[in-house]
Specification:
Elements: E1 2-8, H1 12-28, E2 34-38, E3 52-53, H2 56-61, H3 65-68, E4 74-75, E5 78-85, E6 88-92, E7 107-108, H4 111-124, E8 128-131, E9 135-140, E10 146-151, E11 154-156, E12 162-167, E13 170-179, H5 186-194, E14 206-215, E15 225-231, E16 240-247, E17 251-259, H6 269-276, H7 280-286, E18 290-300, E19 311-312, E20 315-317, H8 333-352, H9 361-368, H10 371-378, H11 382-389, H12 391-408, H13 423-426, H14 449-454, E21 468-470, H15 475-484, H16 488-491, E22 497-500, E23 510-513, H17 523-527, E24 533-535
Parallel strand pairs: 1-2, 1-13, 2-8, 5-15, 13-20
Antiparallel strand pairs: 3-7, 4-7, 5-6, 9-10, 10-13, 11-12, 14-17, 14-18, 15-16, 16-17, 19-20, 21-24, 22-23
Helix pairs in contact: 1-4, 1-8, 8-9, 11-12
Length: about 550
């Protein structure tokens, strides 16, 4: 199937790009054929975010979004930032933070529902949107350019053989292919490696965000309340923090982000989140409520200095495939949308000029002139400050640096700091740390992994090849277990990885992968200290199906 532009990923970036392409064509009276491929069973089904949304990009894409019914119905009314200790909290004054850290003018919403709405707008403009179609391979041209992707392969059993339901998939070719898979996408990794897109960038950094959606009694609901915290339960050398937002129909969105450059292999981001909810500053918002959904997703945290080269022969990286999250603001969807729009403008001009398969240098140039670039530059040292100096000192120096950058338009006394190691290389041997004794879940505020995965609506066809692949099957037991205690069993928030023993609890250790539990967070691909786990795309429509997340 031939298109002008093929977009892999039906998230905010991919759909904004598709919409912008069609808007430009409609304005000029031209035709442009655009396809969007989405691996989730429905648009928005794999979208997970806080989310406090800055409408900056949406204002540009649809100035009349309110009239069109975009589901951003809860404006932010109150901003809180707390530093938690084991038995209390300190509230930091918002006036001590630069203006761009305030959430006035932003909206609390389900980014999944906003994405569903964007999908409807795209289809109304004539975009061909294909949910349940996982793009599994890149189609390369004769000169190494990205020519298209293979999507829709179904009916291969766990031995790799065709079943009675076998469908070989189709090649979708585009004059340009946009990669909008989100964080740590499998096609993005392939293209980055082949075209050396990351050679001049710092290593990408990541966090894992784990989120629950609660519905609480009406008398407790405070629509428009935004509360962020740092500190407990993490120690000063382990970065992370939380969000808690009141919005919609008595909803509270609560989540916890653990930076994946943590050192202790005994740390479990899932269990840190569960015990965090028992702090008085959090529990008072949730008690008496009902947990209705759960999910997890990796987040890009490298920012300005980790953005790779964006354009490659035949296409471009947009949104979180490249990594445009503003870490101190805890926001990225507005930047994802804007980069999709910038790439769309470059591709539209190229297609109309009769080009295809070349490098969209105009996109790279437009990014460097955009407000996305300026926004990321101002906050570029926030993450490396935390990594180098710890949460308290790093946060204090970082706040000073944010003010200086804000007042000078991008100057820093520290220049542009480096990230250094990858998150996988940050993990230290188990012998350097003590095991962490996490409290048992009470079934009211805290829960176990399997009951959590159940309410993420995660499902995979059982008779298919495991999409979590080990480069060397011996590494988990022969290397990771003796050296690191096999951390996959702890950093995975869905119980995918287990080390099993015989009845005596010590003999014959075996590594088990429960791939059907996978919520597609990609943490294993990022954090495995041996870089032995490779996340690949399962059959289309597999994975979680998040409602209102």
């Amino acid at each position: 199937m031939e298109y002008d532009v093929v977009i892999v990923g039906g998230g905010p970036a991919g759909l904004s790009a598709a919409i912008r392409l069609k808007q430009r064509a409609e304005k000029d009276g031209k035709e442009i054929n655009v396809a969007v491929l989405e691996k989730s069973a429905e648009i928005g089904g794999h979208i997970l975010s806080g989310a406090v949304i800055d409408p900056k990009a949406l204002n540009e894409l649809f100035p009349n979004w309110k009239e069109l019914g975009a589901p951003l119905e809860t404006p932010v009314k109150e901003d809180k930032f707390l530093v938690l200790g084991p038995a209390g909290e300190i509230s930091l004054p918002m006036f001590a933070m630069p203006p761009f850290m305030h959430n006035h003018g932003c909206y609390i919403a389900s980014l999944g529902n906003v994405t569903r709405w964007l999908g409807e707008q795209a289809e109304a403009l004539g975009v061909e949107v294909y949910p349940g179609m996982a793009a599994s391979h890149v189609v390369w041209g004769d000169d190494g350019q990205v020519k298209g992707v293979v999507a829709g392969v179904f009916g291969i059993d766990r031995e790799g053989k065709p079943t009675g339901d076998f469908q070989p998939g189709i090649e979708l070719h585009g004059k340009y292919v946009f990669i909008a898979e989100g964080v740590r996408g499998s096609l993005a990794k392939t293209i980055m490696a082949k075209h050396n897109l990351c050679d001049d960038a710092e290593p990408q950094k990541f966090g894992i965000g784990i989120k629950e959606l609660w519905q609480i009694p009406a008398e407790k609901h405070q629509p428009g309340l935004v509360q962020h915290t740092t500190g407990w339960p993490l120690d000063d050398k382990t970065g992370g923090g939380s969000f808690l937002y009141h919005f919609g129909d008595r909803y509270v969105s609560v989540g916890f982000v653990t930076h994946l450059n943590y050192k202790n292999p005994y740390l479990s981001p899932f269990d840190e989140f569960q015990r965090f909810k028992h702090h008085d500053a959090v529990a008072k918002h949730l008690e008496g409520g009902t947990r209705i959904s759960y999910g997890a997703r990796a987040i890009t945290e490298g920012g300005f200095q980790s953005v790779p080269k964006l354009a490659f022969p035949g296409g471009a990286l947009i949104g979180c495939s490249a990594g445009f999250v503003n870490v101190p603001r805890i926001k990225g969807s507005h930047n994802a949308m804007k980069t999709g729009m910038l790439a769309a403008d470059a591709a539209y001009d190229a297609v109309i000029a009769g080009r295809g398969g070349d490098v969209l240098e105009a996109y790279e140039e437009a990014y460097k002139k955009s407000w996305v670039y300026k926004e990321l530059k101002i906050v570029r040292n926030a993450k490396p400050m935390l990594s180098k100096f710890g949460t308290m000192l790093g946060g204090a120096i970082g706040m000073f640096d944010l003010w200086v950058n804000h007042l000078t338009g991008g100057f820093s006394f520290f220049g542009t700091m480096k990230h250094g190691k990858t998150d996988a290389a940050s993990l230290e041997p188990a012998s350097m740390h003590k095991p962490i004794a996490y409290p048992k879940p009470d079934g009211k505020l805290s829960f176990d992994k399997l009951s959590s995965v159940f309410i993420s609506n995660t499902n995979h066809a059982e008779d298919q090849p495991a999409h979590l692949k080990l480069l060397d099957p011996s590494v988990p037991i022969n290397v990771n277990l003796p050296k690191y205690g096999e951390p996959a069993r702890l950093y995975c928030p869905a119980g995918v990885y287990e080390v099993l023993y015989d009845e005596d609890g010590v003999s014959n250790p075996r590594f088990q992968i429960n791939a059907q539990n996978c919520v597609h967070c990609k943490t294993c691909d990022i954090k495995d200290p041996s870089q032995n786990i490779v996340w690949t795309t399962p059959e289309g429509a597999g994975g979680p199906n998040y409602p209102n997340m």
